[in-house]
Amino acid sequence: MEQIKGTLNRVELIGWLGAEPEQRFVPSGAAVCNFRVATKRPAGRNEAGERILESEWTNVEAWEKLAEQCGRYLHKGSRVRVVGSLHTQSWEDRETGQRRFKTVVRAEDVLFLDTRSEAQEPSAPAAEEVEDLPF
User: Under CATH, what is the fold of the domain 11-125?
Assistant: First the structure.
């Protein structure tokens, strides 16, 4: 990852895919794979003093060979480690004409954390089950 003096744009996530990855090819022929990763973050404490955790959903985008590998081997419920950088995309909404923005993590490395048996037999957590992920 190239660094420009005095700045750093690096993201590292470990979590689960919330849905099947979506793979496509752009006109140049390059593969793109998009998926969402669920992670947990502290959100305070309840009345009993127990820590409350909230799910955070992050959009991830992989390109070229990495995209092809993600599209081939990842599935809903896969556990992954993603290393990349933040990228903000903008476009004009066709219906309203307003400028829209979306921030994604552009993956530079994706480590598949499932064991071989888990990868062959996906057991994806449903959206409501993500609240019970073990971290």
Answer: OB fold (Dihydrolipoamide Acetyltransferase, E2P) (2.40.50)
